[in-house]
């Protein structure tokens, strides 16, 4: 196990001002898509990331132009605002995903997929819960670049990947770092002063038995979503089946979830 991982958390930068601008927009009662589009376009890197994400095959624009207005219309204002906010958080941490054998685009895809599953699965059953889980769904893997950096600098990448293949990603992280990505991500978000409503569901998503009751449903949903949007194997059929079993075990809406995954897979096929 890497014993000096704490040093990788010492130089986390302060959040960019655009985070405050997006948060102010989110809380506004008179918000509209034009305001959000302007905020996004005023930040070149954020705009480029959003444009890249709009090209992901999980989205169906129904032959409409791929712009922010239409992106909002096929998802929601809350989705795009949460996506923009989450991207700004992620961009505050230097990207290194070598030890997971994936690219930054894979990272964006996996996290965006997590958000999209939350958006589509919960939008008709519990909009408030859906809106509260969009940002945590994207940010629960926030720490993976730091974990990857530590693993690669200690020349443990080959062993780490072998452990992932033999067990799972979360257990491999715990074996090599001492904590899983969700635990470390929640610690970073705590240092940035984020709400418990974001931090606790992430913190306990891999530790449901110790999760406070008021956050257990959120933590459970995040665990299910991250299983399906697995960074290395998103939408793997065996993981989808595991997720459905978990959903039915806890009495959640399996029909809505199955429909969501089916619709996303249809989008991928139609865009291929």
Compact summary:
This protein is mostly helical.
What would you say this structure looks like, in words?
With 272 residues, the chain is an all-alpha fold. It has helices at residues 17-27, 33-41, 44-54, 68-74, 77-91, 104-122, 127-139, 144-153, 157-166, 169-177, 181-191, 196-203, 213-228, 237-249, 254-271. The protein starts with 16 loop residues before the first helix and ends with a helix. The model has no long low-confidence stretch (mean pLDDT 94).
Please identify the top-level CATH class. Mainly Alpha
Number of domains: 1
Largest sheet: none
End-to-end CA span:
42 Å
Number of strands: 0
Principal-axes geometry comes out as globular
CATH superfamily: Hypothetical protein af1432
Share in helix: 55-70%
What does the average pLDDT come to? 94
CATH architecture: Orthogonal Bundle
Task: Indicate the radius of gyration in whole angstroms.
Answer: 18 Å
Number of helices: 15
Order of helices and strands: HHHHHHHHHHHHHHH
InterPro entries: HDOD (IPR013976), RNase_Y/CdgJ (IPR052340)
Domain HDOD: 12-208
Protein name: HDOD domain-containing protein
Pfam family, one: HDOD
Keywords:
single chain; 272 residues; Hypothetical protein af1432; globular
Strands, helices and their partners?
Layout: H1 17-27, H2 33-41, H3 44-54, H4 68-74, H5 77-91, H6 104-122, H7 127-139, H8 144-153, H9 157-166, H10 169-177, H11 181-191, H12 196-203, H13 213-228, H14 237-249, H15 254-271
Helix pairs in contact: 1-5, 4-5, 5-7, 6-7, 6-13, 6-15, 7-12, 7-13, 9-10, 11-12, 12-13, 13-14, 14-15
InterPro entries: HDOD, RNase_Y/CdgJ
Pfam family, one: HDOD
Protein name: HDOD domain-containing protein
